[in-house]
Specification:
- By secondary structure, this protein is α/β, with parallel strands linked by helices.
- The chain has a single domain, classed as P-loop containing nucleotide triphosphate hydrolases (Rossmann fold), CATH 3.40.50.
- Helices cover about 55% and strands about 15% of the residues.
- The protein has a 7-stranded mixed β-sheet with strand order 1-2-7-6-3-5-4, with helices on both faces.
Length: about 200
């Protein structure tokens, strides 16, 4: 395993060459991490198609994510999510933004690792809270203490994101352009290290 980057406190990116497959670029991370805005910017720069898994589900079903949760529960939503991920990541030259909870399913994690280069946008809970506190379209945050819920979800999911990530980006500071710049540099470094490891 090839590792690179700097200490967590000042880290812009961290590379972990666990796979040489680059069928697509896959963005993972918590709700509010910026996967959609950063993904769109990367797709523009690389002339690739961009797809947000949640948005694709909304387009296919004709209803919002909260309504899917209300009718089918989280389990039903997760089944739809897994099918959509399988479909999207099979496409060539695509950047996919996954839902925050997609990594909970071991099958999804294995699929993402196998299908492409996984990029984790790591954003701390206090920043996620500021970004999502007024968003009513996130069913998992419709609880008495949404800030504590974000912290709980982060503790649960962060190790899973790290488990499958080829590249980890510190998403606490900077907008989508800055984060896209960091990803581009990390992808270049990742490509060189992957070639050296062969």
């Amino acid at each position: 395993m090839i590792r690179g980057g700097v200490s967590r406190g000042r880290r812009l990116f961290h590379c972990n060459a666990v796979t040489s497959s680059v069928g697509c670029l896959i963005l993972v991370g918590m709700m509010g991490a910026g996967k959609t805005t950063v993904g769109r910017e990367l797709a523009r720069r690389r002339a690739m198609r961009f797809a947000d898994c949640d948005h694709e589900l909304i387009a296919r079903t004709g209803v919002s994510i909260p309504i899917i949760f209300d009718i089918e529960g989280e389990a039903g939503f997760r089944r739809r999510e897994s099918r959509m991920l399988d479909e999207l990541t099979a496409e060539p030259d695509i950047i996919v933004a996954t839902g925050g909870g997609a990594v909970l399913d071991p099958g999804n994690r294995a699929l993402l690792v196998r299908r492409g280069t996984v990029i984790y946008l790591d954003v701390p809970p206090h920043v996620l809270w500021e970004r999502t506190r007024h968003d009513r379209n996130r069913p998992l945050l419709q609880v008495p203490d949404p800030r504590a819920r974000i912290e709980e979800l982060y503790r649960q999911r962060d190790p899973l994101y790290r488990e499958i990530a080829d590249i980890i980006i510190d998403g606490e500071r900077g907008g989508s352009m800055t984060m896209a710049n960091h990803i581009e540099k990390a992808l270049d470094d990742f490509g060189r290290k992957t070639l050296c490891a062969r």
